[in-house]
Amino acid sequence: MNKSILLTILFAIVIFQIANEKIPINDGAIGDAAFYREVAASFLDTLDSEQGYNFLQIQRILPFAIINGVYVILGFEMDNNALMSGMLILNLLMLTLATFWYFSLTKKLRLTKNMEALGFILIFFNFPVLKDFWYNPFTTDMTALAFGIGQINYFVRYEKSKLLLLSLLGAFVWPTTFLIGIILLILPNKALEIYQGERVKSFFPIISTAFIIAIATALSFYLGRTDASFSQTEIIFHKISLICLTPFLMYLMINNPINWEKSIPIMFKSINGSRILGFSATFFGMLFILFLISTNNANLSSYTWAKGFWDQNLRFPLDFLGAHTVYFGVLFPAIIAFLPRVIKAMAKLGTGFTFALLIIAGLTIHPESRLITPFIPFFVLLLLKALRRYSLSTMDLYFAFGLNLILSTFYLQINSADFISKLGNAEALPMMYYGHFGNHFNIIAYLIAIALFAGLTFLSFQAKNKYTREKDV
Fold this sequence. Notes:
By secondary structure, the chain is mainly alpha-helical. The chain has 24 helices and no strands. The chain has helices at residues 3-18, 32-47, 55-58, 62-74, 80-109, 113-124, 127-135, 141-156, 160-170, 177-186, 204-222, 232-254, 260-270, 273-293, 302-311, 319-328, 331-337, 339-348, 351-364, 376-387, 394-408, 417-422, 431-434, 443-466. α2 (32-47) crosses α4 and α8 (141-156) runs antiparallel to α9. The longest helix has 30 residues, at 80-109. The radius of gyration is 22 Å and the shape is globular. Mean pLDDT is 89; it is low at 469-473. Keywords: Membrane, Transmembrane, Transmembrane helix. The chain crosses the membrane at residues 82-105, 117-135, 163-187, 203-223, 235-254, 275-293, 320-339, 346-365, 371-388, 395-414, 441-461.
């Protein structure tokens, strides 16, 4: 599939969405979007006032600060419609930059046309890019996705100064972008040890799985995940989710081709004191700068934030797998099918990339898929490297393209009288929109999503079995 055709389809759909529906109340902004629209209108004034912004808000301030600065310099009106137009234009520019970085990356990787097209489909043809960024534009998600592609591009091209600059800017776009960028910059790229031949049997899968489950259980008790604020049904589902997480983690560990017994000493040996000092000074220095800029932290509680974050986890068994499938399409089912090769590709990218992916993997268990938006390019890179020795058929490429287009639901209208009436009712969130967000799943949405994941995973395994493996990645 030619890249010019893919670009034409992508931007045709996006232009259609820009002129199409928006959030139907409050001039197109609710919740956090309404707050960030206000940031775009009064950033400079608020920053200089006693009100200011808190530590979390300042880490998503850059796109709206840009809008405010441009409008002030050019003397534009700052009514809601004008700010909406500015945000849509900024998102469109970021999408254009993201496609430029993507093709720069694929040129460096020397991918075949079909593999290049597959990566493009997995990153850009999904619900957030084709629908959500334009339906609800007052977010940093599009900028974060573009920065994520940029980080991967400069990491692979070994352009450290550009990666550093992008990561510094990312500190004001997405809370975890700077951390991941600094890990890629400072930690070494020495490849980890891979088992040659059959994996040696050990207790590592059992020990590591038990350790993760123990941490998750401890967090649930410490953060009150089973206290009286939850119904008995919610508590039961949470406990079942913890139980179901165990075999999933065991599957990951057993299908892991990394020889951790040899790799862990390599990782610790390559991370010397100067690297640790450099990482600590850079990371905590940036946190200190962010803290100094934020002047409204009186009501910010780390415990309250952690509890709110954890309360959305493990609501239904493996709900994050269904959520990511509905949100991003066939990417995660394909990763599950080609898991050993994906992990092997990760190990060959080195210690720093492996550390970064382990942190991202922790976020992936959260069912709100938008939290991992900046890191989708990381997963796509690994899948492309895992598949590069396969001869991807054009028919399978079109099949993946069609599935992602269908799952994106870009063609469906969200706004209706029923939807508008339910928007303000937290007990009856309409599935037409919130069915794409795993943290809002009800039992019906969960069952549909997990069935989609199971079906697409089965198809991915069928596709895997169809190809003849030439040699290891």
